[in-house]
Amino acid sequence: MTVTHGSGLRPGRHGSPSGSGGAASGGGGARSGAGRSRTTGPGSTAATLGRVLALGLIVGVALWAAAPLVSAGNRLGVGIVAVVTAAALYVYLSPRRLPAKYLLPTTLLLLAFQVFPVLYTMSLALTNVGDGHLGTKQEAIAAIEASSVRREAGSAEYRLTVAEQGGALVFLLADPARRRAYAGTADGLREIGGATFGPGGRVTAADGYTVLTPAQAAARGEEIGSLSVPVDGGAIRAQGLTRAYEGRATLAYDADCDCVKGGNRVWRADDEHGRFTAPDGGALPQGWKVGVGWANLTAAVTNPKINTHFLGVFAWNLFYAVAVVGLTAALGVAAALVLHHPRMRGVRIYRTLIVLPYAMPAFAMLLVWRDMFNTDFGLVNRLLGLDVDWLGTPLTARASVLLVQLWLGFPYMFLVATGALQTIPAEYLEAAQVDGASAWQRFRTITLPLLLLALAPLLVSSFAFNFNNFNGVFLVTAGGPFPSDNPTVGATDLLITYTFRLAFGQQGAQYGLASAISIYVYLIVAVISVAGFRRTRAFKEVR
Amino acid sequence: MRGLAARHAAAVAVTAFAVLPIVFVVSAALDPIGTLNSATLVPRGAGFGNAVKLFTTTPFWTWYRNSLVVSGLTAALSVAVSALAAYAFSRFRFAGRRAGLVSLLVIQAFPQFLAIVPLYVIFSAISDNWPEFGLDSVWGVVLLYIGGQVGVNTWLIKGFFDSIPKELDDAMLIDGCSHTQAFRRVVLPLAAPVLAISGLLVFIATINEFLIASVFLTGDDARTLAVGLFGLLADQRNANFGMFAVGTLLTAIPTVAVFQFLQRYIVHGLTAGAVKG
């Protein structure tokens, strides 16, 4: 690419006073024109300098970003870096007035952290991915065989030393009979030389490996217990922290029948559901990820076990968002109106105090509110002399989350309403008064419509925000209280907290279904945003 | 006169509603016992025991520093990036402009943390190659937050840019300035209110963000206030309440400080649309 010199050529600089448009065109494309550029108009030197800096910066970042990818042999990664670098070079070295110069950073950030995750989520929604269905079929088979390893009488035994290499766990295994040392990882077993043996025949040191102290090893006990070193027809597993044994796999995959055999049972591969099932219907816990088409998306609507929840949660979610917007706006406007009086005193103090909740960190105050609603030692019960389990029954819990959000949200509405009230011309109200309008009529026909006009965009964005107000519910009630027969849907659950629990809850992760529901949530919010945007634009045109 | 008294009564009631929980937090912070069931509305004594305990038994200042760095960087950078994009959308006419604006609106409607599984996959890959931007790193989370905020901010700022007369930058262009100069010297200074308000909103949203931080910043040195303070209550909900209250009050300081600092720019920007939670 030729790096053109950025003087009078740029279409963006119409009518440059030096009139150099024609003159400079001869020097276009020559970087050597830097000296002349000083005379052709302000900013040219700076522009050239900026372009050189941009070139250096882009190339530097690209090299830095590509280095680890190249050494890891990641072709796709290198390709992406190359494409992005080429785009950046084209955009920033071009002398033309490209909108892309301003749009590129935003575009890249959105692509990486918003668009790609959304597309990925959509692709997950078409699979059964989740606990027990995380990897490929090969990985599932390996996991099945490894976890079926049982010790048999007379099998080989080793002295175990737990070590690590580059953070990964390694079993240093000593065969006391033959005085040989092996290093075992999840990839397999290999013999090592240069090991030092200690008393009892254990390896105490080996080149390239860091031996863990007993305390360190104990801390990683779970990891040690689950590591199995594959060997022919079985695997080596730890028994405690100092011994290991070689066991035989009791289950084995047979490619001929595409099934897992063990004992006298057979589990056949079910490629539709991504698991091995026995004729009696039992399935092995380790499955693999398969595409399930639209099943997750339709399940959210048609599966009676899920859709009753889904619709119930959706209805409450809608009510919650509308109620929060309505309540916060009502209280905010009311408070602003109360203080809006020429003879009112102490307005500044009231205002400062009323706005205080807005300054407090919301996440912390949500937790404080949760504890204020506590039955036994919560402030609410103590102040009111009650003994109500606020967050324990559906109705009070719903009232509580609404109250909390009212507290958090109304100061902002108050602030905006206060500002808007001051812009309403007093003449309007005086004229109405002269015409004999009552105070209520003046409020209803003049003040309120003008206030709503100012608040409209805020009401829309508040609705969109509260529709997905994860913290507002999760930190206060965690979605609860839950009915005793169904721990998946609580009374205060919003779609977003419900989805979150589906994906990360105690019942086992169901990323596929959770992704399908997040797509629905997304569609709902997107429609609301676009509709809201249309509406506020309509409001603006009114004005 | 009766009307005025009623106004005061109503104002006092609203003020009490707004202030009581905060008073409770202040009392809990000062309370010498420092547990939830000992906390009252009126403190029974005042001491700094909770504060001392918070500073000595937890890495509170590390959390504090992390939160400030993450929120400050996110606010500054996302406003900068959004202002650039907003300028292009407001002043340039190019193919795909409308489509770009609409897709911004549609894309940003996706709540970022719903995609936390894909995001985790992305960041695991980033960690393998560029640990400076990976999991447990401030920069990685900052980039992620900017990606989640930039759509909203671009819209907000673009709306304000549209209200700045185009004749102003046309005049600059006629005088021989480049677009970049018109942007820097005319549009940006005039847009100070909206830049301030969107910076403030991003700052507040980021310092309050809990979910992504709790997944991406788990290392002892990387935790933010939201994650750290949440952990305090998760460990010992009753016993740590006093420490938690101190932490809450100290967390309010940067928000108030940023608000105070930006206040002179904010008067006009305030109505531009924002929520809190």
UniProtKB/TrEMBL annotation, chain B:
Its main location: membrane. Keywords: Cell membrane, Membrane, Sugar transport, Transmembrane, Transmembrane helix, Transport. Coiled coil: none annotated. It is a multi-pass membrane protein. The chain crosses the membrane at residues 68-89, 101-126, 138-161, 182-204, 241-262. It is found in: Cell membrane. It comes from the Bacteria. Residues 64-262 form the ABC transmembrane type-1 domain. The keyword Iron does not apply. It holds the Pfam family BPD_transp_1. The keyword Cell membrane applies. InterPro entries: BP-dep_ABC_trans_perm, MetI-like, MetI-like_sf. Belongs to the binding-protein-dependent transport system permease family. MalFG subfamily. This is Sugar ABC transporter permease. The lineage of its organism: Bacteria, Bacillati, Actinomycetota, Actinomycetes, Streptosporangiales.
